[in-house]
UniProtKB/TrEMBL annotation, chain A:
Keywords: GTP-binding, Magnesium, Metal-binding, Nucleotide-binding
Gene3D superfamilies: P-loop containing nucleotide triphosphate hydrolases
Signal peptide: none
Protein known as: ADP-ribosylation factor-like protein 6
TrEMBL record, chain B:
Short name of one Pfam family: GAE_BBS1
Coiled-coil regions listed: none
Source organism (scientific name): Daphnia magna
Residue span, Bardet-Biedl syndrome 1 protein GAE domain: 419-498
SUPFAM superfamilies found in the cross-reference section: WD40 repeat-like
Span of domain Bardet-Biedl syndrome 1 N-terminal: 7-113, 114-196
Top-level taxon of the source organism: Eukaryota
Gene3D superfamilies tied to this protein: YVTN repeat-like/Quinoprotein amine dehydrogenase (2.130.10.10)
PANTHER family in the record: BARDET-BIEDL SYNDROME 1 PROTEIN
The name this protein goes by in its record: Bardet-Biedl syndrome 1 N-terminal domain-containing protein
Length: 191, 525
């Protein structure tokens, strides 16, 4: 049965399954990103703050991705690490206009990459690929992408493949380029 | 970045210009628009003109000018509408709603100087009842006529008026007015007073006698921290008992509690005149921050969308925002012990048994007649020994009942031709185990092995096996085995009788179990 599955996958009839964790501070646009990826542009009228987490499925580049859309409120953030052990990729969403909480976003990112579950038990030497979406980049108050890179100290991260992409989850700018990179990394890591 | 720092530097902004004429800035954070984003209120106190600045994140949302010298600010909630802001200036309360002036309320005059308006000295808000009933709050207004007014901000009726011996300059409250609220009132010369809403009539009772002038009172619902101008902070319980004392090097400017339910953190932030802010956990210094100029005001709570934010304003009008690090671990307990020298724990809890009524009565009797008490004790001890021995004899004579057939070990049907009786004799640490084997079939049984095993307890068996080569029909065979119980804790012995077979039989064990028994030995006293 396993052989049959891999044969179908090789034929590209059956798609590979991967779990993607979507994290970030509250009000950064995680649920909007998931909605856009799932419905290809169609958007529901209102997005309410997520409580706990939501699970959604969508497909991209030969992968069936199960997205765990986690709540970003500070009281739910300890929940994130419960899902680290079986995730194949992470999308970290940042509100580029929220300059005050950039330090908090940086700290949460550091806490995540230093978590033992994200480093150990991986077949590859590198950790889980992390796609960072600098969301709300269309706003006037948004800080430039270079500054986001500096504030999050992304150049110091060597343990995980990292990709930073400016995005706008309302129009979908940057989402597909970012997801393409993440899918390639997941396939490359040969989970 | 050190991994284990307590605070994250969220923002430092000198362009907001929070420099006030009098050097006093009062801060508060509240969700003023009911949109989940907490705004920062900064009241810049001036002699002629005071300014109220409201910030949304790092941006100034609005600025309101007051034509008087303001002395106090607080926010209060009203059912079904966004929270209001109350500013006390002169003898009036200025109420703002939706960032606009709403009402000006003149405090009713009273006291000896009848006809003269009372100046407001302090303001605080207190929740009226539990959030499931109503979330509206009451205003506590301290006036220059030595009284505390409790005002309903919806109708502007004074619910209660409490007379005090001195002018209230500091008001801190916790709880719900309708059920159980605690209000602490600090005065410049008459000490601190406590007021409980569940004790009728509501009146202020002395909490602490006057000592050095009070700088600030911080109250987190259970513990009261009082900073005084003699460079000390004392912690008190609500009963007025001193818990601990912290001595610092220089003048204390302000203190505030930092409590995070997510991280189970409870710290006291202390701003000092040398530009440092110290953070104490249970009286031990865990962290300190350094600033160019000293911090004159700070508030802790939810700011913007982030819980656990500490907002500070320096003397130069610079605004600092620090956010609690979620990954902070209180691990440095050991190296902080050295800082304990500055901390003295005033009251140690008494160790030893609580003085119950029984304990006290017995001590009294022993003091009155020691000889009689000793005799009584010895008599009781003898009775206990006797009773224990009698019980033990009853128990050991009924040990036969404890002998039971092993249910778990299957005995072949055809092998049920042997009768086993096990008897335990003796009452002390030495026992005699009598085993009676009887052939109840009409056949001759040969090559039997009796195996004994200690299952439980520290029993010593004289031997662990016995062999019977031949048993004629209806024949009886007695086996006597000495059992020692050196620890007197009892135990369990199992007896298994096995019929030996030839090794070439296809069996995992050489032979089959014919019968078995289990003997319980009760603990000896």
């Amino acid at each position: 049965m396993k052989f049959w599955d891999s044969f179908l996958t090789w034929l590209k009839i059956k798609k590979k399954q991967a779990n993607v964790l979507i994290v970030g501070l509250d009000n950064s646009g995680k649920s909007t990103v998931v909605q856009h990826l799932q419905s290809r542009g169609k958007r529901s009228e209102v997005t309410v703050p997520t409580i706990g987490f939501n699970v959604e499925k969508f497909q991209n580049a030969g992968l069936t991705l199960t997205a765990f859309d986690m709540s970003g409120q500070s009281k739910y953030r300890p929940l994130w690490e419960r899902y680290y052990n079986d995730c194949h990729g992470v999308i970290f969403v940042i509100d580029s206009s929220d300059t005050m909480r950039m330090a908090v976003a940086c700290n949460e990112l550091q806490l995540m990459i230093q978590h033992p579950e994200m480093v150990k038990n991986r077949s590859t030497t590198l950790g889980v690929p992390i796609l960072i979406l600098a969301n709300k980049s269309d706003l006037d108050s948004a800080i430039p992408i270079g500054q986001v890179r500096a504030e999050l100290r992304l150049d110091d991260i060597e343990t995980h493949p990292i990709h930073l992409e400016a995005s706008n989850a309302l129009t979908g700018v940057g989402l597909h380029a970012g997801l393409q990179w993440l899918s390639e990394q997941i396939i490359k890591s040969n989970f | 970045m050190s991994r284990n720092q307590l605070w994250l530097d969220a923002c430092r902004n000198s362009s907001v210009n929070l420099k006030s004429e009098c050097g006093v800035v009062l801060l508060d954070v509240e969700d003023l628009a009911k949109d989940g984003i907490n705004r920062l209120l900064a009241l810049l106190v001036g002699h002629e003109l005071s300014h109220l600045k409201i910030f949304n994140g790092m941006e100034l949302q609005c600025e309101i000018s007051l034509p008087e010298m303001a002395v106090a600010i607080c926010t209060f909630s009203i059912d079904g509408s966004p929270p209001g802001i109350a500013v006390g200036a002169g003898s009036s309360l200025y109420i703002y709603k939706n960032f606009k002036p709403y009402y000006k309320y003149n405090v009713p005059h009273g006291g000896p100087n009848y006809g003269e308006q009372a100046e407001i000295t302090q303001l605080a808000a207190l929740s009226r009842s539990t959030p499931d009933v109503s979330c509206s709050s009451l205003l506590l207004v301290g006036t220059g006529h030595n009284s505390l007014l409790i005002i309903d901000p919806q109708t502007f009726n004074a619910i209660s008026r409490i007379e005090l011996p001195d002018v209230p300059t500091s008001i801190k409250s916790s709880g719900y007015y309708d059920t159980e609220a605690v209000i602490l009132i600090g005065t410049p010369e008459a000490g601190v007073f406590i007021l409980r809403s569940d004790q009728k009539p509501v009146q202020a009772k002395p909490f602490l006698p006057p000592r050095s002038p009070i700088v600030e009172i911080a109250f987190n619902g259970t513990t009261v921290a009082i900073a005084t101008s003699d460079h000390t902070i004392r912690y008190y319980t609500l009963q007025g008992q001193e818990l601990r004392k912290i001595a610092v090097d220089t003048f204390i400017l302000t203190i505030t509690w930092i409590q995070s339910t997510n991280q189970e953190l409870c710290l006291l932030a202390v701003s000092l005149a040398n530009g440092q802010v110290h953070f104490y956990r249970q009286g031990i210094l865990v962290e300190q921050l350094h600033f160019k100029t000293y911090i004159i005001s700070m508030t802790f709570g939810r700011y913007g969308r982030e819980d656990g934010t500490l907002v500070m304003v320096s003397k130069d009008g610079e605004l600092f925002v620090k956010i609690l690090n979620r990954g902070y671990k209180m691990a440095q307990q050991t190296d902080l012990k050295s800082n304990k020298s500055s901390v003295s724990i005033c009251k140690k809890k008494a160790l030893g048994p609580a003085k119950t009524k029984l304990f006290v009565d017995q001590t009294m009797r022993e003091k009155e007649d020691p000889a009689k008490m000793y005799q009584l004790f010895q008599e009781g001890m003898c009775r206990l020994h006797l009773r224990a021995l009698r019980d033990w004899l009853n128990l050991s004579s009924s040990t036969k009942a404890d002998v039971e057939q092993f249910a778990s070990i299957s005995v072949p049907e055809e092998s049920r031709c042997l009768h086993l009786v096990a008897k335990l004799l003796g009452s002390g640490s030495r026992f005699m185990l009598h085993l009676l084997l009887q052939n109840i079939s009409d056949q001759v049984i040969d090559s039997l092995t009796i195996m004994l095993q200690v299952n439980d307890g520290k029993l010593v068996l004289e031997r662990s096996s016995a062999k019977i080569s031949l048993m004629l029909p209806t024949a009886q065979h007695w086996i006597k085995i000495n059992v020692k119980d050196p620890t007197n804790q009892g135990g369990e012995v199992s007896v298994i009788v096995r019929k030996d077979m030839e090794p070439d039989c296809e069996l995992t064990v050489w032979g089959s179990i014919v019968c078995a028994a289990k003997i319980n030995i009760s603990p000896t006293i």
